[in-house]
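dude i think i finally got it to work??
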Amino acid sequence: MEIIIQPDSFESSYLAARIIVRLVRAKPQAVLGFATGQSPLQLYQFLIKMHKNEGLDFSQVTAFNLDEYVGLDPSHPASYHSYMRDNLFRQINIRKDRVNIPDGLASDIPASCHTYEDRIHASGGIDIQILGIGTDGHIGFNEPSSSLASRTRIKTLTAQTRRDNAALFSGEAAVPHHVITMGLGTIMDCRMCLLLAFGKKKALAIAQAVEGPVTAMVPASILQMHPHAICMIDEEAASGLQRAFYYRWVYDNKPDWQKY
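look at this
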């Protein structure tokens, strides 16, 4: 796992955008995995600016989203369909038929999950999967104790995750109990994982995921086993890392051909 510590979320998000831009320019048919939440918002703003000002072309890109709430209509303002439309897809030239988001209204959820996995496989696999991390170390909605080999499936949210997401609803009681999420095994199949984490409240989760043992109780820790995982964090999120000096030293002394 490569740990890149930047001064703040702005610098981190800009560097993450450059990684994605480099891929899309080199491979116009790239397959990108998108995440929701607060962490990727600045990254998406950079991608929108690069599309509008620099001609970054998403017309051949295929998108797969990590997750969606069960029971929410795509038009619901708290759905991840709405989030992606409002914060990225509506403002770039990605084709609607190339956008894939789990179906929270599926009548047969297990079959829908199998179909989602099949679509990822048929696309050639995800080139870069963007990830956030929960305060309990979850990625996607793979809550603590999730199987490290899991695939796209239904999951029950913890009380903590429902509290964390309550601001998007009319109170905690309105937050769905269930979601569809890519599994940890699905995420590990992606050719690159790009995890974003900002702020002091993510410091413990980052420290456990990066420097703790690989354990289902901290799902993000499985990224230690990924051949190309990048953890892009700000100073506050890095504040719990014991080897932060070393991570900075490694990044500052990259050979030119490895720099982003």
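The longest helix spans residues 9-26.
im so relieved honestly
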